Amino acid sequence: MRSLDETRGAVRVEDVYDTSIDDLWEACTDPERLARWIAKVSGDLRAGGSFHAVFTSTWSGPGRVDVCERPHHLLVTTGPGTEDEAQIEAWLTEEGPGTRLVVEERGLPRDRLHFHGAGWQAHLEDLARSLESEAAAGPGQWTDQKPEPSWRARWAELTPAYEQKGLD
User: Fold this and answer.
1) Which of 17, 36, 58, 68 has its CA 20 to 30 A from that of 42?
2) What is the 3-state secondary structure of 122-134?
3) What is the pLDDT of residues 50-108, one digit of tens each?
4) Positive or negative CA dihedral for 126, 130, 131, 136?
5) Distance from C-alpha of 139 to C-alpha of 143, rounded to nearest angstrom
6) Where would I find the beta strands (DSSP E) of 73-133?
7) CA geometry: angle 4, 74, 84, nearest 5 deg
């Protein structure tokens, strides 16, 4: 978590997943797979396109795809043109047999960064469970099993640690 100015900040989280860069890219860009771990997304998901998202965290609203460079870089703007406008940027890089995902969300209220940090960590944990479930089910298969613990329960558990951490 870091400050961008007096009122806005950014949250950056990352993890390495035991899957190929192409598979992780699909998990981060395919609407069906996104719905399994972070959000229901509909609309034009190409660069320059607009979409609507409903996140497991309950945030809901419009977005725009600014950059979509398969399989390495994705940049979207949420709430474009509003006072709540923020950017979510993801970078994927091969790392050994797996793939590193770095996600940064910028433009967030500085006094609420700890909530977003905890939220993003819970989302990335849900992504890991989704990938593990897909791998266990076999190629092209998955289960509709809800990740445990629930996003909200995990977020509530992580928030105090992020609040104590403070800004970098």
Assistant:
1) 17
2) HHHHHHHHHHHHH
3) 999 999 988 999 999 999 999 999 999 999 999 999 999 999 999 999 999 999 999 99
4) positive
5) 12
6) 73-78, 86-95, 98-109
7) 45
Paired tokens of 16: 């390495």
Amino acid at 127: L
Q: Report pLDDT digits (tens) over 95-143.
A: 999 999 999 999 999 999 999 999 999 999 999 999 998 887 665 555 5
- The 10s digit of each residue's pLDDT in 29-38 is 999 999 999 9
Q: Please tell me the pTM assigned to this model.
A: 0.91
**Rounded-to-integer distance, Cα 26 and Cα 54, Å:** 18
Contact (CB, 8 A) for 99 and 24:
yes
Would you call 17 helix, strand, or coil by DSSP?
Answer: strand
